[in-house]
Amino acid sequence: MRLDLQGPRTRQEVPALLDRVEAFLAEGRCASAARVQLLIAIEEALVNVMLNGWPGETERERVFGLSLERRQAEDRLEVAILVEDDGIAFDPTCAPAPDIDASIEDRRIGGLGIFFMHEMTDTQHYARVAGRNRLRLTKSCPIEGQHPGPG
Amino acid sequence: MNVTTEVTKRAVIHRLSGRLDTASSPAAEQAILQALRPDQSRIVLDMRNVDYVSSAGLRVVLLAAKQAKSAQGALALFGMQPGVREVFDISGFSRILSILPGEAEAIAQVAG
Question: Which of B21, B56, B96 sits opposite A107 (nearest CB)?
Fold first, then answer.
């Protein structure tokens, strides 16, 4: 099963988009903890593109898409996410990790979004293809109501 | 996301509900920071009805904790759902913030 959506143009569009993603994952009986982790990873990936992809050019027509695929394999739900945009080239898989051991005073505000995207998914793959960023994330999720398998 | 604020003698309690995400975080930030004054820098966040926190939400919590601390106050959170707690754990925030099971403990933590 596949779901194709347009990326958000404003922060206010994000919740409705996440609602649609959540419904799609719930239809596939994705366990709730994994569902929340996927929503966080997707929010972080989309917001990163929305805020940084097109500096100073918010009005022009742009490519910004989100696709999800879900496939049941035995007792797991395999989810693949593709975020594609024609913003400035940026590889989030190479971004430095924040210092998660810093004190309150030293802790920087920001920098956590990309870190969450990594932590909440199993694989992250980036490519720059024909002037577009293509970020693919995957996660193997337990199915609701079944005992979680390995991993 | 809804924020209800209660000012008591011992602490300012913000009761949050819903998703603390990129869309709702600016309003939550405004509500929490607006209530922060030199004599009201002991902040408690009631997280019982928050079911989702992204990095945008953590940013608000960190900002509030930093400002409370610089005003000689403190911030504590209570009633976190397991999925939300996981976000605080992964980010390392659980180690630098006071996260308590209940309201009374959270108030005692900031009010001393």
Answer: B96
Best residue in B1, B30, B54, B86 for a mutation probing chain A (most A CBs within 10 Å)? B54
SS3 sequence of A83-147: EEECCCCCCHHHCCCCCCCCCCCCCCCCCHHHHHHHHCCCEEEEEEECCEEEEEEEEEEEECCCC
Per the CB < 8 A criterion, the answer to whether A64 and A89 are in contact is no
Show residues of chain A in contact with B69, CB under 8 Å: 104-105
The C-alpha R_g of chain A, in whole angstroms, comes to 16
Nearest CA to B19 among B47, B44, B52, B58?
B52
pLDDT tens digits, one per residue of B74-106: 999 999 999 999 999 999 999 999 999 999 999
Which of A36, A47, A101 lies nearest to residue B92, judging by beta carbons?
A: A101
CA distances, A149 to each of A43, A141, A143, A146 (Å) = 26, 9, 9, 9
Residues of chain B found within 8 Å of residue A119, distances taken between Cβ atoms: 90
pLDDT single digits (tens) A53-104: 888 765 567 899 999 999 999 899 999 999 999 999 999 998 888 888 888 8
Which residues of chain B does A36 touch, with a Cβ-Cβ cutoff of 8 Å? 51-52, 83
Q: Are strands A2-6 and A123-129 parallel, antiparallel or unpaired?
A: unpaired
